[in-house]
Amino acid sequence: GGRMADDNFTAAAVGRSLPLNMLRLASSRQLLLLPVVRHASTNAGGKTVGFIGLGNMGAHMARNLVKNGHSIVVFDVSDAARKSFQGVAKKVVTTPAAVSAEADCVITMLPSSPHVKEVYGGKDGIFSTMSKGTMLIDASTIDPSVAKQVGEEAAAKGASFCDAPVSGGVGGAEAGTLTFMVGGTPENFAAAREVLKFMGKNIVHCGAVGTGQVAKICNNMMLAISMAGISETMNLGVKLGIDPKLLAGIINTSSGRCWSSDTYNPCPGVLPNVPSSRDYTGGFGSALMLKDLGLAMDAASASKTAVPLGSLANQIYSIICSKGMANKDFSVVYKFLSERS
């Protein structure tokens, strides 16, 4: 955050000195400041950004760019999604290639690795029309090796690429408070941050291209394990006759404390305003958790890393999804266990 505040301060200071510069145009040294002022104002918004993937997350992210003064050119495979951006976007187009032909920065928010490969490298893909120097940011959650592959292709074609998966869910996308986990060179990260800051509040540089994905899938594997753990713990306590609120209170002030317990407890009635207290609606769907666990399992297999609990969590969520609970929040693992014991 400090860095960003410094950047804002510098821009503000340069802006404040502008009238003085205008009075001193005769001095050639003062002229050097003027391009800096123009640069500061483009950073603050106003450039054309391409956005591909207007789903539950992408639609809100794209709207936040518009709210912050950017013109956007958008594409989605869904007719309904494209129609909803008529009058919001500067242009609604019919291929990824048409987006990259118009924009000097393109953001993608897509469901999975194959979609990302197709949108970037396919017949009407981004790479077919983009100009050199284009900034590409992929906010999808995909296989880290695919992110690296797309990043290498982008670099070979003279574009800059960052992978920037998010956490914060639909609510964070709407509020503009997402966390972005960004993989890319320090220079590309600095440039990407100037756009990402309009859609998120926590923008973290994780390392080279692909490391954003690594951070995301490792965190979500841990989240699935901890949610399964607190669910079986709460279920055991309830079956043994202890009051669930009392048990949660003890856990949350003891060594068993974790986010899945103190912020997102899966046992109905323990916390208000969480999915478990509204029949597991809303929140982060079990199908999405299963997708992220699948990515973690693929990465573990490729790197020959032992993930016994991750593997078990993957199996549990696979069963949950096959039992008709794929669209329920991932804390539904509590309900799944309680009905089986």
How is this fold's topology laid out?
Elements lengths: L1 H15 L1 H6 L4 H4 L1 H11 L4 E5 L5 H10 L3 E5 L3 H5 L7 E2 L3 H5 L4 E4 L4 H9 L13 E4 L5 H13 L3 E4 L2 E2 L1 H7 L2 E6 L2 H11 L3 E8 L3 H29 L4 H9 L6 H4 L23 H17 L5 H18 L7 H6 L3
Parallel strand pairs: 1-2, 1-4, 2-3, 4-5, 5-6, 8-9
Antiparallel strand pairs: 7-8
Helix pairs in contact: 5-10, 12-15, 12-16, 15-16
Describe the overall structure:
This protein is of the alpha/beta class. 52% of the residues lie in helices and 12% in strands. It contains 17 helices and 9 strands. It has helices at 2-16, 18-23, 28-31, 33-43, 58-67, 79-83, 96-100, 113-121, 144-156, 169-175, 186-196, 211-239, 244-252, 259-262, 286-302, 308-325, 333-338; strands at residues 48-52, 71-75, 91-92, 105-108, 135-138, 160-163, 166-167, 178-183, 200-207. The protein has a 6-stranded parallel beta sheet with strand order 3-2-1-4-5-6, sandwiched between helices. Strands 7-8-9 form a 3-stranded mixed beta sheet. Helix 5 (58-67) links the parallel strand 1 (48-52) and strand 2 (71-75). It starts with a helix and ends with a helix.
